[in-house]
């Protein structure tokens, strides 16, 4: 695939955290308009890769390009300003604020709820009915699945070119996971490029267009999600499991 078809590219990225060398030359391409799954065992370096893309940890070597622009040395607010949204594993919800206030914080063009884009808000309510239902409730009082919906809704309250989400299905009940799969499917159809770290293989199989598998701080496999889902021997060797 030519680099022009990729929205995000990591080339030879190394990341050190203190004395620890976590990423060992990560090469990763995220095709424009597709949903890419980043899979791997615990400790493979998936979350570190996301945090390095977002500038929360600095790459010690290699380059990160977004839309053809080198963002390797940019600070996190500058990266977010390029229309990249990041939902961390802990969701980053402000527990004492209402759902409405959480979304308002992310809506840069609105200083109050009345100024939020009404059509976009209705679209989000259709994706995540719980966001509308608990609009005036403190976010900290919501269930894990509802908080996850608020976290993703907050990330997409403004149009994004790239949405990066770390383990959206973690700890969620199967019915909530199915709702989340439907929502990400709708987001993908709306043209958003998505990078998901996921442990839930059902989730990965249903949504992924492309896949990258990490092990020991490197990408050890990249290709189509459908091809990986169909190859049990490859799944076993890369992930030690069957899809």
Automatic annotation (TrEMBL):
InterPro entries: AAA+_ATPase, ABC_transporter-like_ATP-bd, ABC_transporter-like_CS, BCAA_Transport_ATP-bd_LivF, P-loop_NTPase. Belongs to the ABC transporter superfamily. This is ABC transporter ATP-binding protein. Residues 8-241 form the ABC transporter domain. The keyword Glycosyltransferase does not apply. SUPFAM superfamilies: P-loop containing nucleoside triphosphate hydrolases (SSF52540). The keyword Nucleotide-binding applies. GO terms for biological process: L-amino acid transport. The lineage of its organism: Bacteria, Pseudomonadati, Pseudomonadota, Betaproteobacteria, Burkholderiales. Gene3D superfamilies: P-loop containing nucleotide triphosphate hydrolases. Pfam families: ABC_tran. One of its GO terms (molecular function) is ATP hydrolysis activity. It comes from the Bacteria. It comes from Acidovorax temperans. Keywords: Amino-acid transport, ATP-binding, Cell membrane, Membrane, Nucleotide-binding, Transport.
């Amino acid at each position: 695939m030519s680099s022009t078809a990729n929205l995000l590219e990591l080339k030879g990225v190394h990341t050190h955290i203190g004395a620890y060398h976590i990423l060992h030359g990560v090469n990763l391409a995220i095709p424009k308009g597709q949903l890419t799954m980043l899979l791997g065992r615990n400790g493979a370096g998936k979350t570190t890769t996301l945090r390095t893309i977002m500038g929360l940890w600095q790459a010690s070597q290699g380059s990160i390009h977004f839309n053809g622009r080198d963002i390797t040395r940019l600070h996190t607010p500058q990266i977010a300003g390029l229309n990249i949204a990041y939902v961390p594993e802990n969701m980053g919800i402000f527990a004492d604020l209402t759902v409405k206030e959480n979304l308002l914080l992310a809506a840069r063009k609105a200083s109050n709820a009345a100024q939020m884009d009404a059509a976009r808000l209705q679209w989000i309510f259709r994706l995540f009915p719980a966001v509308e239902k608990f609009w005036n409730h403190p976010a900290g009082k919501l269930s894990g699945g509802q908080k996850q919906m608020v976290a993703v809704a907050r990330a997409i309250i403004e149009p994004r070119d790239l949405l990066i989400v770390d383990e959206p299905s973690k700890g969620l009940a199967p019915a909530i996971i199915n709702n989340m799969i439907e929502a990400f499917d709708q987001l993908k159809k709306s043209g958003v490029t998505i990078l998901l770290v996921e442990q839930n293989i059902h989730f990965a199989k249903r949504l992924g267009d492309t896949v990258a598998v990490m092990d020991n701080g490197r990408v050890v496999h990249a290709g189509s999600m459908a091809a990986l889902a169909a190859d049990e021997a490859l799944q076993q060797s890369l992930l030690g499991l069957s899809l």
